Please model this.
Amino acid sequence: MALKIRHPAPEFTAQAVVDGEFKTEIARAYNVVIEEGEDAGVALRGAFIIDREGILRQMTVNDLPVGRNVDEILRLVEAFQFVDEHGEVCPANWKKGDAGIKRQ
Model:
């Protein structure tokens, strides 16, 4: 299944960790498991923002050597919440407390 923004996110019921061992069901549902080579079975570094309705709003997947920016992920969550509540657009670098832009 291809992941698409503004479409339902994959549903899953698997636990991410069982007895201290990472399980790949969730990573496979989001297509972030490396399938070949020396890193086969390892999950790439992914972050997925899913709203209350289960709709995928944002996804970022990085190769193993590069981490994610948690502050940026939190900023995006706050921006999506602002847009949903106010119906305005959040420009690049928008931060909680900033004004939005009215839609045309």
In short: Residues 1-63 form one domain.
